Amino acid sequence: MKKVMAFGTFDIVHEGHVYYLKEAKKLGDYLIVVVSRDSNALKIKGKKPLHNEKERLEAVKKLDFVNEAVLGDREMRGWEIIRKHKPLAIALGYDQWTSEMSLAEELGKLGYNPQIVRIKPFQPEKYKTSKILKRG
Question: Which of 67, 64, 76, 65 is nearest to 9 (CA)?
Answer without folding.
Answer: 76
